[in-house]
Write a structure and sequence with these properties.
By secondary structure, the chain is of the alpha+beta class. It contains 23 helices and 39 strands. Strands 29, 30, 31, 32, 33, 34, 35, 36 and 37 form a nine-stranded mixed sheet that branches. Helix 10 (405-423) runs antiparallel to helix 11 (426-443), helix 13 runs parallel beside helix 16 and helix 17 packs across helix 18 (577-593).
């Protein structure tokens, strides 16, 4: 059955039609983007929706295709497993993804649910970009399931029936935290007793209880499916663990199979039976249930020790007798059911939350959650609310107990908002709004000091980009409580320091703090409070360039170090991929307010290098194949299946790869300008102006781009970004005629005219090979050809030494010193080592930084025979010569050489005879222009 037409479907159809024939209706010309919240009035620039920009063939389309195939192929029910389990619903046999998105992952899976949010955003972006129904169908499946999950969480847990040995049984899915609560008085004052249960465990966690009757951790009796040795154990005590009188089995209970366990106690002897066979006997068990006195907690599946896991599996029956059954009677229970006289549950119910007692005593049992239930009907998560509750009293970080619950809430919230914007599914908006209503109900009750303490805790208090998401929701809902909620996340110490332009970033966790500032910009948009925007702008400049590696990444071991320390932080855990993702978001958002070209220069750097290079160039339906860290140490091999999987960086990597086109073009809020920020093969449908703009380019393999305007006549300024690296020229022609002006690197070049159907704009920007020096060690350098970072492919684990002046061109371009590799664009060799674009997602060992070594003075491959002297601070004679490039011709270069040589001779840094050799060599060499 085809889904109903929605705003999303209609807009996509209109866009595809417009791409074929550029005709625009009045409705299309005035619409808001289908995939974005309403833009703030404070923005002077506006983005286009993903559906407005179509990627053409090239590196971005190829990388995106790999991720789209993953989005199509991965079973969304696996992602929903942890949510359904938390709500006590059937998981449909799905297996959780594992890693961070499962109970067995790092820190006990405390971050589970985050990856599902990322996946929803990826699906939403994929649908917006392609219009393929498969993505919309997957979104609807996920949103429908999450709606069912929230509804289930609003009520007491209900029976999840499963096949029993004969008939039905009750299943407690791992992660549901369900247990059976028996009434007080189950044991009576029995001095002899038999406990018997049919169980089918599905997980091998130690100390999971089949039953635990007690008051606390002092007086109790229990039957555990597995003790520390992995075998069943029964124990009874009035003095805690040290006073236990126990029985231990001899073999582990099989997983996924029914087992019968029974314990008899009488006359000081205890016996443990497994499947009708006595496996343990203890004749020194003097304690009986009567000795325990009145107990308050009689639980099946739950322990009185809070740290013990809840039993995962099925119960097929539980009985208690006020006497010790004989061995033959216990054996007989294998073939037929006999009701205990103290209590008897068959667990054959198929609905409801209670279990009937057939002993005749009427002791109805109740299914419960260990954590009770949500504090608000809007709660939605893949883990209990206890994560959020515990954070409120924490004073230090311990992610094994509480791992960034509001960070996870952000990912879910963002995914739901994106799902709504992509598909118009009101259920997604309702879920998102409910989550914020729940968060407000919690956080608004807390003292300001508590909130400040929470948000300042490393990891546990991390909340990601939740402020941005809440502001986006507020733009849709208009609910004042939503805006108030966004402000409850203010971390005043950080905001105030950055607003005052005081750099306090040293020692902070990078990715915990970067998205805070995107949220602050959005708070400025909503409130007009200047300190938010000022803090974000100042923060950006504390990171760029002071803590940024050549590829655009930042952080080492996830943290920032001192300002301007680059070489001193390089290692195997540099450049966490999430950091680049969030720095791009912040740069983009700041650019909407202030059209500083530096923001887009950084955007290009990080996008074309770290972000593209973080995705392996290999198809895989099961894994997104995205790096976590990108080590910049010599010989590093990228790991595209990091940690245990389903990490934060894989999540943001899925998002990045499905929105490559989101910042290629922006438009002025008044519609009078079109900004071309990135040179990428693409087609923009600008409905308001009634035109399409198509970029045809092989960039970055091609050193330029061609833009063709189609559609009706339209007057607007075309603002073309002149990259800061475009020092070799930037030429623009319209319909073959040169546009006059002086393009300045690191600016925008404007072409204003009334555009006509078929107008062609050609942009040419020759690349040069240049180096960028580490701020704290100028001899450590990274190579760029235009926007492309080039890395040396070599397995050595120490820095490689290279000289680059040997055949430098008069323009200052260092590329002639390298040899192009035939048939491999942007690949070169130098001294037998291949240099390749960082953006290529291979597993080759690479060197992102090299050690610059120019031991001899060489011009145009002609060796002067003179050593290259250096000043105390490290500047060499050749450095000073080539700092004067570009040179108008050979005479200008020779004149520069003579001037520098004379100064160095006069300073006693170079001998007169050697100086003469240097000048003579420069004069006699033949140079590349």
């Amino acid at each position: 059955m085809a889904p109903p037409l929605t705003r999303r479907t209609l807009l996509r159809s209109a866009m595809l039609a417009a791409a074929a024939v550029p005709v625009f209706s009045a409705t299309a010309a005035t619409r808001a983007s289908a995939t974005q919240s309403p833009p703030p009035a404070a923005w002077s620039l506006l983005p286009f929706g993903l559906e407005d920009v179509t990627l053409g063939p090239g590196v971005f389309a190829a990388k995106r295709q790999l991720m789209l195939d993953h989005a199509r192929g991965y079973d969304v029910n696996r992602l929903l497993q942890v949510f359904r389990a938390n709500a006590g619903l059937s998981t449909l046999g799905a297996v959780a993804p594992g890693g961070w998105e499962g109970l067995d992952g790092e820190a006990n899976g405390n971050l589970r649910g985050h990856y599902t949010g990322h996946f929803l955003t990826m699906l939403s972006q994929a649908y917006a970009s392609t219009g393929e129904r498969v993505f919309a169908d997957r979104i609807r499946t996920a949103v429908g399931a999450l709606t069912e999950v929230r509804e289930a969480l609003r009520h007491d847990p209900v029976v999840l029936s499963t096949d029993g040995r004969s008939g039905t049984a009750v299943e407690n899915v791992r992660g549901s935290y369900k247990y059976v609560d028996l009434p007080v008085g189950v044991l009576g004052d029995a001095t002899a007793i038999t406990l018997a249960a049919w169980v089918k465990p599905t997980h091998d966690a130690g100390w999971t209880r089949i039953l635990d009757f007690g008051n606390d951790t002092t007086r109790y009796l229990y039957l555990a499916a597995r003790n520390a040795s992995g075998v069943p154990r029964f124990a009874i005590t009035t003095g805690g663990a040290g006073g236990e009188q126990g029985l231990d089995g001899t073999a582990a209970l099989p997983l996924g199979r029914w087992s019968h366990l029974a314990v008899t106690l009488t006359g000081g002897t205890g016996t443990l039976y497994v499947n009708g066979t006595a496996v343990a006997r203890n004749t020194a068990m003097s304690l009986t249930p009567a000795a325990l006195g009145t107990l308050t907690g009689h639980w099946l599946g739950r322990s009185h020790y809070a740290s013990d896991p809840v039993f995962a599996g099925a119960f097929g029956g539980f009985d208690v007798w006020s006497r010790a059954l004989t061995a033959d009677e216990v054996t007989g229970l294998q073939n037929g059911r006999a009701a205990g006289d103290l209590v008897s549950y068959a667990f054959d119910e198929t609905s409801g939350s209670t279990f009937a007692d057939s002993s005749g005593r009427g002791l109805t049992a109740t299914l419960r959650r260990t954590w009770g239930g949500p504090s608000h009907p809007g709660f939605l998560a893949a883990c209990p609310e206890t994560q959020f509750i515990q954070l409120e009293s924490m004073t230090g970080s311990d992610y094994t107990k509480v791992w960034a619950p509001y960070y996870t809430a952000h990912k879910i919230l963002r995914g739901l908002l994106d799902a709504y914007l992509a598909t118009d599914d009101d259920r997604a908006l309702d879920l998102a709004s409910g989550m914020c209503d729940w968060m407000y109900s919690r956080l608004s009750k807390l003292p300001a000091a508590t909130l400040q303490r929470m948000w300042g805790i490393f990891s546990s208090g991390e909340f990601g980009g939740i402020v941005e998401a809440i502001c986006d929701l507020h733009a849709l809902s208009g609910n004042d409580e939503h805006l108030a909620l966004a402000r409850l996340f203010d971390l005043d110490k950080l905001i105030d320091a950055c607003a005052a332009d005081t750099d306090t970033l040293d020692g902070l966790h990078a990715n915990q703090h970067i998205p805070i500032f995107t949220g602050l910009v959005r708070l400025y948009d909503a409130t007009g409070e200047a300190r938010y925007l000022t803090a974000a702008k100042n923060f950006w400049r504390m990171v760029v360039p002071h803590r940024v590696y050549g590829i655009g990444g930042t952080s080492t071991g996830e943290f920032w170090k001192a300002r301007d320390v680059i070489a001193g932080t390089i290692g195997t855990t540099t450049a966490e991929t999430c950091c680049a993702y969030n720095m791009l978001k912040l740069s983009r958002t700041l650019f909407f307010h202030e059209q500083d070209p530096a923001y887009m220069d950084y955007y290009e750097r990080a996008l074309y290098n770290q972000v593209l290079g973080s995705r392996q160039d290999t198809p895989d339906a099961e894994k997104p194949l995205v790096t976590y860290f990108i080590g910049l140490n010599p010989g590093h091999v990228r790991d595209y299946t990091p940690k245990q999987g389903t990490t934060c960086c894989e999540g943001t990597g899925m998002e990045s790869a499905t929105k490559y086109q989101d910042s290629v073009y922006f438009r002025a809020a008044d519609g009078g300008s079109l900004y071309v920020n990135l040179y990428s093969p693409s087609t923009l449908t600008w409905a308001e102006q009634g035109v399409t703009v198509t970029q045809s380019t092989g960039f970055p393999r091609e050193q330029g781009s061609t833009l063709t305007v189609r559609g009706r006549r339209a007057a607007f300024a075309l603002r073309l970004r002149v990259p800061s690296w475009a020092t070799a020229g930037f030429q623009v022609t319209v319909n073959g005629r040169k546009v006059h002006g002086t393009p300045t690197p690191g600016s925008y070049f404007t072409v204003s005219r009334t555009w006509r159907d078929g107008d062609v704009v050609r942009v040419a920007m020759p690349f040069r090979l240049r180096v960028e020096k580490a701020l704290d060690d100028p001899s450590l350098q990274t190579l760029f050809h235009g926007p492309v970072n080039l890395v040396a492919r070599n397995s050595a684990t120490t820095y490689l030494e290279f000289g680059l002046y040997r055949n430098a061109a008069l323009s200052g371009d260092l590329l002639p010193s390298l040899t192009p590799v035939s048939g491999k664009p942007l690949h070169y060799t130098l001294d037998g080592t291949e240099f390749a674009p960082f953006l290529e997602g291979t597993e080759d060992p690479t060197h992102a930084y090299i050690r610059r070594a120019e031991p001899r003075i060489v011009f145009a491959d002609t060796d002067s025979g003179v050593a290259n002297p250096a000043k105390a601070e490290g500047t060499t004679l050749l450095d000073e010569v080539w700092a004067g490039a570009p040179f108008a011709g050979k005479p200008a270069l020779v004149a520069r050489v003579r001037t520098v040589v004379d100064a160095w001779v006069a300073a006693g840094l170079l001998g007169t005879a050697d100086g003469a050799k240097v000048v003579s060599t420069a004069r006699g060499a033949t140079y590349v222009p």
